[in-house]
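Could you show me some protein's one-letter sequence and the numbers that encode its backbone in two labelled lines?

___
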Amino acid sequence: MAEKIEKKQSTLSETVSVIVQALILALLIRTLLFQPFSIPSGSMRPTLLEGDYLFVSKFAYGYSHFSLPFSPDIFSGRIWSASPQRGDVAVFKHPVSHVDYIKRVIGLPGDRVQMRNGQLFINDKPVKREYEGQIDNPDVTERFGPVDVYKETLPNGVSYDTLDLSPNSSADNTREFVVPEGHYFMMGDNRDNSNDSRFGVGYVPLENFVGRANIIFFSIAGGASPLEIWRWPSELRLDRFFHSAMK
């Protein structure tokens, strides 16, 4: 009888040990390598849609205390720091609320950024903007009816599509923003429906960057949860699986 109890205790101890090791490994992967994120809003349409689930590379920009779970303020600056590149889609902490945001890196330290009649200017030079046509798909645009799509090409050659929901909106003309040293200017691809550096976000310090968006590994429409498997046949966006999260 005593032998059976000892065997049960040994089995339980081994099980607990395996679970603890698995949790530690998962925490290390999440902290140092890749962290899953879901897209909660439409500010990055048409590049990223609500219901997209993606992996974010935590090592792309090095590590700050924002890289850690719950962001404990145990050190300042970045370790193994690397600079975000123009055109990157990045997750960062809002400079004030510290809520997770995801936007595209548009302005680098020292840049002058401005919107003029719907066209982006960087350092007083217009960013190449080409009319691509229209999208008439509410799942992509969140609007019923056709929406104009423009391709932007940044000075370093990075291209991506942007939505123009409302020509001549308040977002189409801004003051000139001068990006401070150590900060970045972030914008959503859904130009008329994005709270970004033009508005409430402001300039984003390098320390606030969490990681670079890498790849979409799951996507579901209709506000469905991935756990609602009975909705998969009608709501899964299979064409977005393993799709780049950058364009």
In short: Residues 2-33 form the longest helix (32 residues). The chain is about 15% helix and 30% strand.
